[in-house]
Each structure stands twice: as structure tokens, then as C-alpha cells.
Amino acid sequence: MFPKRKQAPLYLLTGLIIGLAIGLLVGYRIFPVQFFDITPVSLHEDFQQDYLTAVGLAYHADKDMGRAYSRISQMMSPVSIDTLRTMNLRMEEDADNKPYFEQIRSFINELQAYMNNTGKR
To answer: pLDDT (tens digit, 9 = 90+) per residue, 58-93?
Structure first.
């Protein structure tokens, strides 16, 4: 007679599937990851461009350069006009940001003048 082949216990596969399901439920629904005290410096480069756009548009709305400088300095310290200009040029390639390109360019020029007048470098 031929010897019987051993089959893998079905309970191991079942336990793995149930454990994975419970782990995903706990990780995504019950105790999801929450971020606190995140600063703009930790943003990905694409999101930093979005942040620059938001700060530039807010500046054009309220003309408060001190506040705008403070917001930009949260993203980069020290504030680098060359980096901001590079970000603005990359934004021009994106069709979503193209309408704001001139406003952001104007904001960066005014920010540079503000930094030169106040001695902030």
C-alpha cells in the first residue's frame, strides 16, 4: 500500500486570515495613525509647492508680508529665495498651478524685497 500524504492543517491558514483581518481592522478603524504637530518642513516636495501657493495667495488677499514670511520660514529655515523660485518654475509645468504662477512669482519678488529691507537672510 501507498503511504498517505500529510495535508497542511487548515486551521493555520484560517488563523492567518482571521489574524490579518483583525490586524487591519484595529490598525485602520479602531486605532488609526494620527499625526500631531506636523510642520510644513516635513511635507513632500509636491505638497511644499501647494503650501507655497497657499501662502502666496493668502498674501495677495491680506498683504501681510510679516505673516507670509513667518509661514514660509516654517517650511524652510533659512528662507531661500532661489529654492522658492525653483519651486515656482516647477509649478509652471503643472496645469493645475499654472493660473497662480504669476501671483506666486510676484509674491516671491515681494518676499525678497521684504527680506532685503528687514535684513532677514
So the answer is: 999 999 999 999 999 999 989 999 999 999 988 888
Give the three cell numbers for residue 24. 487591519
The amino acid that residue 116 corresponds to is: N
Place of cell 513667518: 70
- C-alpha–C-alpha distance, residues 49 and 51, integer Å: 5
Q: Is 27 exposed, middle or buried (0-12, 13-18, 19+ CB in 10 A)?
A: exposed
Output b/e per residue, 39-77; b: 16+ Cβ within 10 A. Answer: ebeeeeeeebbbbbbebbeebeeeeebeebbebbeebee
Write down the H helix ranges in the chain. Answer: 10-25, 45-62, 65-75, 81-93, 101-118
Measured CA to CA, the distance from residue 11 to residue 106 in angstroms comes to 66
CA–CA dist 112, 68 (Å, integer): 12
